[in-house]
Amino acid sequence: MHPEALEIVERLSLAPHPEGGFYRETWRSTLAVATPRGERAALTLVHYLLPAGSFSAFHRIPGDEVWQHAAGDDLELLTIAPSGHRRRGRLGPAARGDAEPHRVVPAGAWQAARVLGDRYALVSCAVAPGFDFRDLEFLGADALAGLWPEALDLAAGRPGGRP
After folding, report:
1. What is the pLDDT of residues 94-137, one digit of tens each?
2. Which of 3, 12, 58, 99 is spaced 20 to 30 A from 145 at the CA atom?
3. What CATH number has the domain spanning 3-155?
4. Residue 93 backbone dihedrals phi, psi, to 5 degrees
5. Is the dihedral of CA 132, 73, 113, 152 positive or negative?
6. Rounded to whole angstroms, how far apart are CA atoms 105 and 117?
7. Coil, strand or helix at 55
8. What residue spans of 49-136 are helical by DSSP H?
9. What is the chain's percent helix, strand, coil content, to nearest 5?
């Protein structure tokens, strides 16, 4: 791991996340909302660091998620909408190329990410209704191959093709 990334992981007390990378929840709203899966916090917020060379596995949650770039390299965010529409977007400082400073992943969309550089990407992620590990679903390789075959190469660290 890049020394800057390691320093941030230690300074922010980040822990490994099941989808890859490192995280720490920094806010959980005391306001609760009813959802089909039970009561959830209205909003949660985390720091999330993805080291270069790693991949945030395709996963989905039932809430809207806002990714906001905080530091480091740009991040490529890959999404597959419930309709099957695929999108690749670049997250980073607005002043740098075609990067967007934040991106919304709609509820129920499959999402994954990778760093577009050789260091790390640090982002903040806000989820509403709030994130709960009981709601986290991962997309298996066979299912991904049916939805977006080129993304298998990205998950394996190979450049892959553009959809």
Report:
1. 767 789 999 999 999 999 999 999 999 999 999 999 999 999 99
2. 99
3. 2.60.120.10
4. -60, 135
5. negative
6. 22
7. strand
8. none
9. 15, 50, 35
Lookup result for tokens 């390299």: 73
d(CA 61, CA 106): 9
Query: What residues does each domain of the chain span?
Result: 3-155
Give the integer Cα–Cα distance in Å for 86 and 132. 25
Residue type, 6: L
Residue type, 32: A
- Angstrom distance (rounded) from CA 127 to CA 53: 25
pLDDT in tens, 43-80: 999 999 999 999 999 999 999 999 999 999 999 999 99
Considering all CA atoms of the chain, what is the largest pairwise distance in Å, rounded to the nearest integer? 44
For residue 89, CA distances in Å to 84, 92, 95, 127, 149 come to 16, 10, 15, 19, 18
Tokens in use for 57?
Answer: 């596995």
Q: Which residues pair with 134 in a beta bridge?
A: none
Cβ atoms of 50 and 94 closer than 8 Å: no
Characterise 156 by phi-psi region: left (phi > 0), alpha (psi -120 to 50), beta (else): alpha
